[in-house]
Every structure is written in structure tokens, then in C-alpha cells.
């Protein structure tokens, strides 16, 4: 037993296990253990035209609300004040805000009417942008509801102050209305659908494609390396591309058929989804084979580690990620751009390549060129033994 515990490999193995456990703990839990919002963008639409009090004074509760909201803690929420609901919808379609609080034109007028014999209950609307990120949209909804609850309480207090000054009796019906003066309605824009893995289908498509193309890349790289003895030529490069296209098309077809026909994932345009799967798959194939062609097999652990570190962050809103993860990982990983492409297609009804090939397409093209440049890479001369010379 003493010799066993003196074996260096025992302690080297322990060190490797500690390193692996540390890497995977940070990769899977580092970005998720304490998700707190940082500058979560929420819009406030102020269409309120205000009202005139009997004493001649003008008041506008919408404008007052906008001023007060900007005084709140801005580290967790980034408030955007807009003038029209149309502007808010445009911002949501461009994935700029997770939710919008809409204060209508007659808000102040209807609030004042609550003290008259013909009251009209005012209402506000919260619009949530589900397609941007369902978790982020739900958090924005919670924040918006909390803000409007406080707003309601302030209005209630002001109404009771007005009643006290006017010295008028309060009926039971008026008391009920004043206790909750502003009703809140909720609407959805860019919905994720009922069968979309809670809006995570873009992330799932991205993860499946990356791993499937990685296996394809390793198989083709190994076959070509053995056939060419590590010396890349134009012919071997062409073979790699043709075989890669074949692999990716079949992989995309399998993913498409299983998700659409078997799992019944909600998709509005099936043809465009298949093309997108092939396009993203090819971009991933080019990225992976660029690393393999230039670095060789040591690139494989890098590709796998990139996947493990990036997987947990794909389903989270970037505003919920720790600063280190957001700044040094999320901003540049190719998965992020794949995710956005699938989101545009599945949730935002944007046509295929409506905004061009996107960042992921540019990365794919650059990778394709770098794959070809591997032909110019110097090849180490193989040592020839005495037996081979004879």
C-alpha cells in the first residue's frame, strides 16, 4: 500500500481531477448561481395629455411618473422614456427592450374623473417582449408590475387628499374605485409559442448543431490527415469542404425532421428553418475545421471547452449574467450570433437573411478562407529511419 500512495501518477491524477472539477463547476454554475439584473432595458411610453383641475391648474400624472421612474435605482433597470406606443413596438422588434409600460392619452383625465359622478376607470398596459428572452421578459414584467403598484398607491393617496380638501362624502362604490384607481393590462409581442421549450429552441438548435458538426469535423479531419499524412493540398481541402457540406445537410435534415415532425416544435416557416440549420451548421463546421487544420487534435479540447462554458449562458438574458461572463465570453462566442439568427427567424418573423448573412455568416466566411490557407502551413518533415532508407 505504501508504494501505491508513493506513485506519482496517483497524485497527478488527483490534480487533474481537481482541475477538471474546477473548470466544469465554473463553466456550469459560474454564470447561473446568482443571476441579478444589470441595466435591464424597460421602456415607459408617456402618451398622457394631462388634465386641468377645477382651480385651473394643469397636472400630468404620466409626466410625473416618467420623472419619478428615472430617479429610481438605475443599476438594475435601464429606463427608456418614449413618446408613442409605436416607438416602443419598434424597439421591441429590434430587441432593444424586454417590456414597455404604456400610459395612455386619457390617463390624467380619467383619474380626475374618479372624483366625479361619472367616473371612468383609467388603465395602463404592460407589453412584454417574449421572443427577446422569456426569462428576461418575465423579470421585466415583475419589475413593471411592482412599479405600477407603487404608482397606484401614490394616486390613491392623492385622491384621498383631494377628497379631504373638497370635503365631499365618499360612497362605497367610490371607495372601491379609489382603492385601486388604475387597472393594469398585459400584452405579449413576439410570443415564443406553446411548444418551444419555454423559448429555448434557438439555444437548443445551436447546441445540437455545434456538437453534431464537431463530430463530423473530427471524423473528416482524421480521414484526411491519414490520407494526406498531414500535408494539406487544394484537393484535400476541396474534399473536406464537399464532405462537410454533405454531412451538415444530412445532420440538419435529421434535426429538422425530429424536431418538427416528431417533437412538434412550433415553427411558422419550416423551409426557412431548414435552410437556417444548414447555414449555421456550415458556419460551425468552418470554424471548427479552421482550428483543426491549423492546430490539429489539440484544438478538440478547446472546441469542447468553448461549448461547455457557453452552454449555460445561452438560455439567460445577457443582462442577468455576471460582468466577467458577459464581457469576456458572451460578447464574442459564435453561439451568441447563432442564437440571435434563430431568434429572428422563430420569434420575430424576420425573413431568412433579411439583414444579410449576419455576424455568424461573416465569421463563417472568414473561417472558410482560413481553412484554405492551411494549405500554406509548413509541414514537418517525417523522420526516415535506417530500415526505410534500405
From TrEMBL:
Membrane-spanning parts: 12-33, 204-224, 236-261, 273-292, 299-317, 356-376
Keywords from the UniProt entry: Membrane, Transmembrane, Transmembrane helix
Subcellular location: Membrane
Topology term for the membrane: Multi-pass membrane protein
Protein name, as recorded: DUF3533 domain-containing protein
Source organism: Niallia oryzisoli
